[in-house]
Amino acid sequence: MSKVSTYLNFPGNAWEAFNFYKSVFGGEFLGDVVRMKDMPGASDSYEIPENEKNLIMHIELPITGGHILMASDVPPSMGFNLTFGNHVSIMVEPDSKEETDRLFNGISKGGEITSPLQDMFWGAYYGTCSDKFGVNWMFNFYTK
After folding, report:
1. pLDDT value for 126
2. Which residues contact 47 (CB under 8 A, 6 or more apart)?
3. Could you tell me which CATH class the domain 1-76 is placed in?
4. Residue 50 to residues 40, 112, 117: CA-CA distances in angstroms?
5. Average pLDDT, whole number, for the chain?
6. Is the separation of the CB atoms in 140 and 124 below 8 Å?
7. CA distance 132 to 141
8. Is 59 in contact with 36 (CB distance < 8 Å)?
9. Which one, 17, 27, 58, 119, has the greatest CB density within 10 A?
10. Alpha helices in the chain (DSSP H)
11. pTM of the model
12. 89-92: strand order across its sheet
């Protein structure tokens, strides 16, 4: 069966970010949380710096409606140049107005509310924010 997941890259704080997301959405991480030191053949291709061995290579967390949030840390030593931008948002469509409020208030804590939750012309209770890690979120609960 086809599915869509959201994949995020972090500059070394994926573990902190995903524990925060887990505190908001609940649930458990899927499968093993893979660290850089767990990569098969990692030492064959290059030496992982000691301060990067516990960084996240891959992590997964189901959030709502079967959607899976995934992530990695992307250390510069592996040739990555991470730049956060405004080109990715995660759309969450909860089952109730109360759940929308709970999730929005949780994920925006320590971040920035860019559009407060409000009733919109398309028949939804909608708001947007960026979390404390710079990830953009959209919340949309259809009231009609």
Report:
1. 96
2. none
3. alpha beta
4. 17, 34, 44
5. 90
6. yes
7. 23
8. no
9. 17
10. 14-25, 42-45, 97-108
11. 0.81
12. 89-92, 136-142, 124-130, 112-119
3-state secondary structure of 67: coil
| Class of the CATH domain delimited by 88-144 | alpha beta
Which residues sit opposite 89 in a β-bridge?
A: 136
Report how far residue 122's alpha carbon sits from residue 69's, in angstroms, rounded to the nearest whole number: 27
Q: What is the rounded CA–CA span in Å between residue 91 and residue 5?
A: 11
Domain-by-domain residue ranges, the chain? 1-76, 88-144
* pLDDT score, position 41: 63
- Hey, do 1-76 and 88-144 end up sharing a CATH topology, with the first three levels equal? yes
d(CA 117, CA 129): 10
